[in-house]
Amino acid sequence: MVDGDDKNDMGYLYEAMDRAKKILKERNPKAYRKWWAIIDKRWEMTLHHDLHASDNVHNDGEVMRGTMNVITRLVRTMNERLDAMTEVERYRMKLGIYGGYDMRCAAQRLTPAEWWIQVNYQQASTNPLMYVAKRVLSQTTSSSQCERNWSTFSLIHTKIRNRLG
């Protein structure tokens, strides 16, 4: 997912990690905790930042705190921050433009960045949250941390070594 060239995956990364852990728990109900510890350690060291959580605003306190931290860092003035934070609540509650049928359908077909641009067009003004969303969603991801693991793995697991008894 982080090595794709066709789209920016920053907005999907947090949710993908949660789904992967859930599947691991379902498939390995007795041993999943050991694997979760390894995943969580790597997640905390390299991937888990407020920026990764900010596209998935829901009732989860960690995600909401991350969203507010990103807004605080990215928005210049206090008034703009307060407007963006108010807009987060409207988004979460699906009020106004966020609850409309057209925008819900558009969410199924458009990338998150394209969807936020449509929100801005629909409102015929600058949406305070759209500025933050565009900046966050335009971030790219990198597989450099994974590359290191794959290199180590390929040194250990070779055709010759796999044949050794």
From TrEMBL:
It comes from the Eukaryota. Residues 109-164 form the HAT C-terminal dimerisation domain. One of its GO terms (molecular function) is protein dimerization activity. It holds the Pfam family Dimer_Tnp_hAT. This is HAT C-terminal dimerisation domain-containing protein. It comes from Colocasia esculenta (Wild taro).
